[in-house]
Amino acid sequence: MVSEPINLIRGWPSTSLLPTQHLSRAAQAALADPTVAFPGMLYGPDEGYAPLRDTLGDWLTAFYQPEQPIVRERITITGGASQNLGCLLQVFTDPVYTKDVIFAAPAYMLAFRIFEDNAFSGKMRAVPEDDDGLDTVRLRKVLEESEKCCPRHEATTYKPSRPYAKYYRHVIYCVPTFSNPSSRTMPLHRRIELVKLAREFDALIVSDDVYDFLQWPADSSKPSSLTKALFPRLVDIDRFLDGGSDRAGADGFGNATSSGSFSKICGPGIRVGWAEGSAKFAHGVSQAGTSCSGGAPSQLTSTYMDILVKEGTLSRHIFETLQPAYAARHKTLVSAIEDYLWPLGVTLPQSNRRVMGGYFLWMTLPDTVKAVDFAKRCQEEAQVIVAPGNIFEVPGDNSVKFEHSIRLTFSWIDEDIMVEAVKRIRAVLESCLNGERPVEACKQAETVQNPY
Ligand SMILES: Cc1ncc(COP(=O)(O)O)c(C=O)c1O
């Protein structure tokens, strides 16, 4: 009889890896210094705590190594990637003029409601990933069809025109590096194609770049500290390709924004992130009504993060603690899958990559096993909670399904129970493959609780 439940669905950092002591010291230092504590305790400027914008510019420049340094004007402080998505949809989309949002599918499921809250229900489209991430050939078709239905010149806007913003015709949402949930990474050529398409169709690419720092070599005999980004971000490509957002005929807002966050590399409770884009775009994000009324989000915790980033503590934590720890968890989970699940026909995409990263593994089950039933059985019979592929399908678009996939998270649970988790999953899979419990019986079972 299986006892302790094992949660492989929760995309949170491990509590054993939270830099609590560093944060405690930074908080005390910030609060003890009136030049930091007073601005930290008051309403922040719309764009966020200026020292952190500078510090982030230097820190991101060192990691992404763009052709030119990232300056503070390109950055607005946010309350994390989720809050930022809400703000930028409020500022840069219109419920009438903006035709749709197109997701790289499978997609980060908790983003769906943020789009629905911003009038995108019924306007959400899925474009599948191939091995290189979002399939740009399919994306072009979707964009062309969308434009055919309602040509740009015929469209009006519902919201008023505002000097600090523009309304994009389409939104493209993706996680191009170590994606949630597929863990796929888009290579450079695909990123360039995507930016070109966004420019052609007046689309805003919202790129959640929240896992970029969590990377390690697939070959564990190599040193596991990787201090430079694998690829330029979409926002970097948009900045420099063919003259960037200031090229002739462009309006200066650009077509890509990077949403960064300290949630996965420090702790989500800190609620500090950043939006990067052209200076015009970054200023626009800061003009969301909530920021103008309440000041920049997360002003006080921004002062703590400024200290941790500036003094190098966060970099050391990422490169010396998080990368090796997550690399070890990832390796343990993959090895267990190879030992116990591969022989039963389970596959992993992109398992041949040089560099791995993020929080997740995306697994494909044998054709005869439906993920939604399988997840129920894992929870009921083995007390292992896994995420079935259907929750990452784009609501309202049935063209891209993930009926035989599941997502496993390796960030949350400790390494020592991973093999146990996989053994339990194997027992359920064997039983499914042997037809020991008909699918009808599973349908009676309660739905999987939502333990994200
Ligand atoms: C792709 C992606 N974007 C955003 C978030 C949430 O980020 P934040 O905590 O900064 O709001 C997550 C968390 O799971 C995520 O996976």
From TrEMBL:
<dbReference type="Pfam" id="PF00155">
    <property type="entry name" value="Aminotran_1_2"/>
</dbReference>
<dbReference type="InterPro" id="IPR004839">
    <property type="entry name" value="Aminotransferase_I/II_large"/>
</dbReference>
<dbReference type="GO" id="GO:0047536">
    <property type="term" value="F:2-aminoadipate transaminase activity"/>
</dbReference>
<dbReference type="InterPro" id="IPR015424">
    <property type="entry name" value="PyrdxlP-dep_Trfase"/>
</dbReference>
<feature type="domain" description="Aminotransferase class I/classII large">
    <location>
        <begin position="41"/>
        <end position="425"/>
    </location>
</feature>
<dbReference type="GO" id="GO:0030170">
    <property type="term" value="F:pyridoxal phosphate binding"/>
</dbReference>
<dbReference type="InterPro" id="IPR015422">
    <property type="entry name" value="PyrdxlP-dep_Trfase_small"/>
</dbReference>
<dbReference type="InterPro" id="IPR015421">
    <property type="entry name" value="PyrdxlP-dep_Trfase_major"/>
</dbReference>
<protein>
    <recommendedName>
        <fullName>Aminotransferase class I/classII large domain-containing protein</fullName>
    </recommendedName>
</protein>
